[in-house]
Every structure is written in C-alpha cells, then in structure tokens.
C-alpha cells in the first residue's frame, strides 16, 4: 500500500506541506496510480493555505475542524512561504504551490494520464476550463463537470455522478469555507483517489480573472493585484484578513519557539 510521505511546518496554526511544485504534482499522480477502489480507501484530501485561510482557521471553529481533516495542506500563497521562514529558517517551505499553477503542474510534471472531474463555478466557466485543459494537455482527461450552484440536498446525486465518471482527481472550486465543508462532508461517499480544493481556479484558466505579473507573484503581492481588479469584492477581505493572518503567524510562531526553548 502506497503511503504519501512529506514533511510539514506550522504556519499560522496550520500544518503545511514542505513540498515544491514538481514534488506535489508527482505526489498526486503517485497517489492516483496506487489507488485501488477494491481497497475502499478514502480519498486523499488536499486543501490550501494562504492569508485568508489562516485568518478563517483562527476565527471560525467549523473552518478549523474542516482544515484539520485534510490529508495535506499546501502553500497556495507566497506569504505562507515567507511566513514559514520567520520561525523555521532551516525547515521552511521551498516554494509556493499555487492551486492555479498546480492544475497545470500535474499534467506537466506527472507523465501518466489522469482523469479529472471539475466541480464548482458557473456552468460556462467550468465547461470552458475543462475544454482548455483537455486541449492543452493530452494526459489531462476530463470525465465530467458540475457547476457550483447547488444545495446540500443535491449533493448525494452529484456524488453519485462523480463516482460514475470514475475520475482520479476531483477539483472542488466553491470558495472558502464552502469547498472544505463539501469535501469533508462527502469524503466517505466519493470513490476517488484525490480531492483538491481550488477556489476560483477555473476563472483563471478561462482568462476571466487575470493573473498578476510574475514579479508581483514572486513578491507575494498577487493579493494586491486581485484587490485592484475587484475592489468591491476583495478590499475588505484583505483589509481584515491580512493583518489578522500576520498576527496569527506571530502568535503561533512564538508559541512554538517557547515550547522548543522549554524542551531544550
């Protein structure tokens, strides 16, 4: 039986994988390659860590419970990579693994063909994203799509449709914390090797949302670019969550440092 092995570092209270883009993509592929439906193995659930996630994790008990049930949390935000260096210089996250990159990294860095199911967003967006990915990568096989405008009563039928399509990877783009709640609530219903939460990823694939220039991404300023493009939606989110996330990182980092000092 294949056991995914990776190290983690605590960033803002969230245990976050110390994996680079290639290693994370290949880990996903290897989990899928070793999955056996006959073993009744539960899906391997992957969530993301960024400033918004840190703030929610430390202020919403339900969101914290959902995040803690993930099998792996990766560094979606460049800020998380930077935060990991504050108190863990020799144990930091090597690079950002943005979900908007990961969905391309998997077919680029894992040679095998994987079947994907895209859930979330508007019907037009998720369908177009599926077309773009399938046309861009011969080893990215889309076996189904489902828009994100449904209620809890419809989830059983949706899970049945996903199982019937037999994907290797289920992408769930419903936004935080709804997508985490969906993943954990339906984990036992789904016969898929890997589930990955992906927020508004489909809109970036289709070009509906622009990516920040590379220099802003590397500087950890992609949030500023996004806010400038949609201030009504994002100004207050970042104005509140960014300072709170920094406070949470400092709080947890100092607590870890004090524990280490006591042990020594």
TrEMBL record:
It comes from the Bacteria. It comes from Alkalimonas mucilaginosa. It holds the Pfam family Glyco_tran_WecG. This is WecB/TagA/CpsF family glycosyltransferase. InterPro entries: WecG_TagA_CpsF. Keywords: Glycosyltransferase, Transferase.
């Amino acid at each position: 039986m294949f056991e995914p092995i990776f190290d983690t570092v605590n960033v803002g209270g969230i245990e976050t994988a110390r994996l680079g883009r290639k290693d994370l993509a290949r880990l996903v592929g290897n989990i899928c390659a070793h999955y056996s439906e006959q073993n009744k193995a539960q899906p391997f659930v992957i969530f993301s860590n960024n400033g918004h996630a840190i703030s929610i994790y430390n202020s919403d008990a339900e969101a914290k419970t959902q995040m803690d049930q993930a099998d792996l949390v990766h560094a979606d935000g460049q800020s998380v990579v930077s935060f990991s260096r504050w108190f863990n210089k020799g144990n930091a996250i090597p690079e950002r693994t943005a979900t908007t990159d990961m969905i391309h990294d998997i077919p680029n860095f894992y040679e095998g063909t994987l079947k994907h199911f895209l859930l979330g967003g508007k019907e037009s967006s998720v369908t177009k994203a599926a077309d773009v990915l399938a046309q861009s990568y011969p080893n990215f096989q889309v076996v189904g799509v489902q828009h994100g405008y449904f209620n809890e009563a419809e989830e059983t039928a949706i899970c049945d449709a996903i199982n019937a399509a037999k994907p290797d990877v289920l992408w769930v783009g419903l936004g935080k914390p709804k997508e985490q709640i969906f993943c954990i609530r339906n984990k036992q219903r789904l016969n898929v090797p890997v589930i990955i939460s992906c927020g508004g990823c489909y809109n970036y694939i289709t070009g509906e949302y622009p990516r920040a220039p590379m220099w802003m991404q590397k500087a950890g300023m992609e949030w500023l670019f996004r806010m400038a493009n949609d201030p009504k939606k994002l100004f207050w989110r970042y104005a509140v969550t960014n300072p709170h996330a920094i406070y949470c990182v400092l709080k947890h980092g100092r607590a870890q440092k004090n524990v280490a000092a006591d042990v020594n």
